[in-house]
Each structure stands twice: as C-alpha cells, then as structure tokens.
C-alpha cells in the first residue's frame, strides 16, 4: 500500500495561500528534506537553493528530481555552514575561493560539503527573494 503524504493538500494550500508572488523569484529553502515540498512550487520560481543537513534525505531529493528542474540546487549542508559560506564570500560580486579541505576538513566541513560550496554562487549581494522554512507549514 502506498503512503499518501498530505492527501488533503494542506501543505500546498498553506504554501500558496501566502500573500506572495512566486513567479521569477529566487528561493532559499531551509530544511528541504527529500524535496517533496520543493517540487510543489519549483515550477513557479526562477531559482531554488535547497539546503538539507541529513545526507539520506539529500540523496533522496537528488534521486527524485523531475526533469526540467535544473534550476533547483540541493546542497547537503546545514544553515550554519551555508551562512558561513556566504560570510566567507564577503559580499563581493565574485566570492572568495573556498579553501581546499584538509584531511580532516576545515571547521568540521567534510570533502562533500566543500564540493557543494565550490559550485554555489551565492554572496551577500545576491539575495534571495524568499526564504522558506519547510517544516513550519
């Protein structure tokens, strides 16, 4: 038997009843989990950076990505690490290079985190239009 998640569409109704314009927006989704909420709004926005610290949930989101959603970037890191990267960027138009990880990482960051951050093009001068805390719906 397949488990239906939110068959009454309560999450979607709550999300789309917010007084927001989604079209063309840049969204930071914090705690994106397996992406089940991400896919409900991603076709309406220009860009999504979805961060999730749980590696298993992150992998599920990547595996379940529908085609045509290349503008959605899932990163396996927590808000603290994401914030630290943006702080390292210094608000410059071009972020400073993220240092290469040492054998044990820098400040607890592992090699996979560094790979994610190297591809990320976010600085303090490139702000998000919306921040979504998905667990708050």
Structure characterization notes:
The chain is an alpha/beta fold. The chain has a single domain (22-136), classed as Rossmann fold (3-Layer(aba) Sandwich). Helix content is 29%, strand content 13%. It has five helices and four strands, in the order αβαβαβααβ. The protein has helices at 10-16, 38-41, 55-63, 79-89, 111-119, and strands at residues 26-30, 47-51, 72-75, 130-133. A four-stranded parallel sheet has the order 3-2-1-4, with helices on both faces. α3 links the parallel β2 (47-51) and β3 (72-75). It is globular. Mean pLDDT is 75; it is low at 91-99 and 101-107.
Helix content: 25-40%
Shape: globular
Number of helices: 5
Order of helices and strands: HEHEHEHHE
- Read across the widest sheet, the strand sequence of neighbours is 3-2-1-4
Task: Round the Cα radius of gyration to an integer and report it.
Answer: 16 Å
- The pLDDT mean sits at 75
Biggest sheet character = 4 strands, parallel
Structural class determined from secondary elements:
alpha/beta
Q: Could you name the CATH topology? A: Rossmann fold
Nutshell version of this structure?
This protein is α/β, with parallel strands linked by helices and 137 residues long. The chain has helices at residues 10-16, 38-41, 55-63, 79-89, 111-119, and strands at 26-30, 47-51, 72-75, 130-133. Strands 3-2-1-4 form a 4-stranded parallel beta sheet, sandwiched between helices.
